[in-house]
């Protein structure tokens, strides 16, 4: 693969625009750029999550997710281009089924807490939801394939499940929400 970045500080964005992969320029506050930024932020948060101890299978899954998020970002940066394959959505479905099958059924709401790794997985989940909303906004304004939206939707679900997995890694449990109002019955 050849070099793709030869210069980081180009100064071409000083006017409030940024370049897309098809050589068009758009305002930095456009829905497409917002979605790109949210996907990039999500990928960065997953990188932070990967600094934590976790089962090797979860680590491998999250590394693959990072690559797919890079593909998703590439697809967002080149209107009409396809980089994120439908197989990526199927892989998340399979991972969801696998990890969820090992967890006890949820009967209460849980808080985004527990171990540091689980809490970071919850942060990733919320950023994934924001990225999904941003991708939906792009799709409302211009043609966009379903796969990017579906991928982020499944990923946020998977991150919730992985937070539960990570809380149990060393014998822990979910942190359950306690409602005083519900307790009074």
Automatic annotation (TrEMBL):
Entry EC no(s): 2.5.1.-
SUPFAM superfamilies assigned: Cobalamin adenosyltransferase-like
Bias type Low complexity, positions: 15-25
Gene Ontology MF terms in the entry: ATP binding; corrinoid adenosyltransferase activity
Region named Disordered: 1-27
Pfam families the UniProt entry points to: Cob_adeno_trans
GO BP annotations listed: cobalamin biosynthetic process
Taxonomic superkingdom: Bacteria
Gene3D superfamilies named among the record's database cross-references: Cobalamin adenosyltransferase-like
Keywords of the record: ATP-binding, Cobalamin biosynthesis, Nucleotide-binding, Transferase
Reaction catalysed by this enzyme: 2 cob(II)alamin + AH2 + 2 ATP = 2 adenosylcob(III)alamin + 2 triphosphate + A + 2 H(+)
Domain Cobalamin adenosyltransferase-like: 8-165
Subunit and partners: Homotrimer.
Family recorded in the similarity comment: Belongs to the Cob(I)alamin adenosyltransferase family.
Protein name according to UniProt: Cobalamin adenosyltransferase
Species for this entry: Ramlibacter rhizophilus
Lineage: Bacteria, Pseudomonadati, Pseudomonadota, Betaproteobacteria, Burkholderiales
